[in-house]
Amino acid sequence: MKSPINPKTLTVLVTGATSGFGAATCRRFIAAGAKVIATGRRADRLQALKKELGPRCRIAEFDVRERRQVEAALDALPKEFSKINVVVANAGLALGLGPAHEASLDDWDAMVATNINGLLYTVRAALPGMVARDEGHVIMLGSTAADYPYPGGNVYGATKAFVKQFALNLRADLLGSNVRVTDIEPGLAETEFSLVRFHGDAEQAAQPYKGIEPLSADDVAETIFWSATLPRRVNVNRLQVMPVMQAFGPFAFKRK
Ligand code: NDP
Ligand code: 8X3
């Protein structure tokens, strides 16, 4: 029986490492002995993470929406960090919670550009090396919002449905290689996600978590780490995780 993967053999690229799941994922892999490339746009936070995590952490500042920046950052990696075998395509956001007919098109553009295009640029840049080495793991951050619609989830949920289907289609393309693909699909988790969604309004951002014990960033990082360190024969296709205090509701009706 093949043993689980030794984390010390892993070089992990994480997008969205300046906050939430991404930062927690970097910490989890570093604690287990892996090398990590932590990326995001906020340089001060990347610097602080590097200071905290030490020489096995390398940082790269780029915007995932900018294809050339993504490609250039990966091309510029020094030899000891260049053989990425896990990519965690995590950078993403929701903007707004209004109904579609009132939503901001700028918010919609930003979600599509980040959650879809940015994720594609990240995965596409890391994939050829993994296929050439016949070893690797693409882990994407989907969401329960891909499966379960809710009012105001319009474009955000649709971008995560894209992630789910892209992950499944990638599995089809990669059959025959030893490259794994996983869509991690969390429910309500407390990070800066809500603050971003409500454009910095802290009071509104606190509402979704009121009276609920949400998932923590560490909870989600643990599922990412677990998926990445299972024996190589195992592929977790989709992994949905929710707080115990969250579940499903009945269909809604507009009654006369
Ligand atoms: P946070 O807001 O805490 O973190 C988001 C991260 O994404 C930040 O590090 C941010 O870095 C990065 N990011 C955003 N836009 C860009 C960009 N254009 N270029 C590069 N990096 C970018 O949120 P979470 O940790 O909660 O979210 C991480 C992922 O998990 C997202 O894809 C989100 O949709 C998903 N998710 C979140 C859930 C939740 O309830 N929290 C549940 C299910 C899924 P910076 O601003 O420095 O660039
Ligand atoms: C984040 C979870 O329910 O806010 O993807 O859309 S939710």
Question: How would you portray this structure in words?
Answer:
- It is a single chain.
- The protein is of the alpha/beta class.
- It has a single domain (7-188, 216-241), classed as 3-Layer(aba) Sandwich (Rossmann fold).
- Helix content is 43%, strand content 16%.
- Strands 3-2-1-4-5-6-9 form a 7-stranded parallel sheet, with helices on both faces. A two-stranded parallel ribbon has the order 7-8.
- Helix 1 (20-31) packs across helix 9.
- The longest helix has 29 residues, at 105-133.
- 40% of the residues are buried.
- The model has no long low-confidence stretch (mean pLDDT 98).
- The structure holds NADPH dihydro-nicotinamide-adenine-dinucleotide phosphate and 2-hydroxyethylsulfonic acid.
Features:
9 strands; Rossmann fold; binds NADPH dihydro-nicotinamide-adenine-dinucleotide phosphate; 7-stranded parallel sheet; binds 2-hydroxyethylsulfonic acid; 256 residues; alpha/beta
What is the element string, with H for helices and E for strands? EHEHEHHEHEHEEHHEHE
**Share of residues in strands:** 15-25%
Give the total of beta strands. 9
Task: State the CATH class.
Answer: Alpha Beta
The CATH superfamily turns out to be: NAD(P)-binding Rossmann-like Domain
Label the CATH architecture.
Answer: 3-Layer(aba) Sandwich
| Poorly predicted runs | none
The overall number of domains is 1
Round the mean pLDDT to the nearest integer and report it: 98
CA distance, first residue to last residue: 62 Å
Secondary structure: helix percent? 40-55%
Shape: globular
Strand order of the largest sheet: 3-2-1-4-5-6-9
- The Cα radius of gyration reads 18 Å
For the report, how would you describe the main beta sheet?
A: 7 strands, parallel
CATH topology grouping: Rossmann fold
The helix count comes to 9
Bound molecules: NADPH dihydro-nicotinamide-adenine-dinucleotide phosphate, 2-hydroxyethylsulfonic acid
Structural category is alpha/beta
